[in-house]
Amino acid sequence: MAENDVPPVAVTHGVVHYGDRAVLHGVDLRVETGQAVALLGANGSGKSTLIKSSLGLVRLTGGEAALFGTPVPRFRAWHRVGYVPQRLGAGSGVPATVREVVSAGRLSRRVLGLPARKRDRLIVERALEAVGLADRAKDPVTSLSGGQQQRTLIARALAAEPELLVLDEPTAGVDAASQEALAAVLSDRVADGATVLLVAHELGPLEPLIDRAVVLSHGRIVHDGPVPEPAGVHAEPGHVHVHPHAKEEERLWT
Ligand SMILES: Nc1ncnc2c1ncn2[C@@H]1O[C@H](COP(=O)(O)OP(=O)(O)OP(=O)(O)O)[C@@H](O)[C@H]1O
Questions:
Q1: pLDDT block averages, 10 residues each, the chain of length 254
Q2: CA of 51 to the centre of ligand 1 (A)
Q3: Single pTM value for the model
Q4: Pocket lining: 54 vs ligand 1, CB cutoff 6 Å
Q5: How many domains does the chain have?
Q6: What Cα–Cα distance (Å) separates residue 48 from each residue in 104, 144, 161, 236, 246?
Q7: ipTM attached to this prediction
């Protein structure tokens, strides 16, 4: 299908400056339909900046970004995209319950003016269960820990069933059982044809789902291929990609 030739995410020669400081130095990232891509790298290597700039949340100072083939400044089909930031913005003291926040993810899918249908409610319940928050559905989000708030946002994005899911550190501060549940639900979404781009420090239970790893170091891509081993085995047979920054990359995993 021609549609499949259009990459959901394409950043071409992406450059980002914060003030005078360049934090992305001409990065190329193209994510194809149905791929599950992990963006890895040390703190401050530019992972969040790259995904934010791919969505137009951070302005590129060089290069361009397109979503589903449309340059981001002209992109309007936001219902096709689900984005989960690292944390709820500080001071977002909205007294909404967990279920209300997750239900908001269904809004773009609902027929305007009609009450939530049974299917919407079911999808919301499934999303809450997938992140292990079904028993907290009635609680205000503000009463949750940072990790639980993050999981609320993940459930909201899942409930919207977008074609492209972009998640910034979805497993940070999340217990092992919830990481497994998240991996299962993301696998389901990929099996349904969705595309996943996520930032992670450690993949853990997400690893089987990931079919491509992109490693950033100091604002540059230093690896693009299979998931690298956590430490120092880059030269072993089976490690497909060898690059000139192997030492640097090893440090990312310590
Ligand atoms: N709004 C901002 N203003 C100024 N500098 C910023 C801003 N956001 C990020 N930076 C800096 O840009 C660099 C890249 O940050 P970024 O958050 O993209 O890295 P990261 O790889 O996602 O890090 P982490 O793993 O800690 O989330 C860092 O040095 C960071 O301090």
A1: 77 96 96 96 94 92 97 91 72 66 72 66 89 92 84 89 91 79 88 94 91 96 89 42 38 31
A2: 11
A3: 0.82
A4: no
A5: 1
A6: 24, 23, 22, 30, 22
A7: 0.95
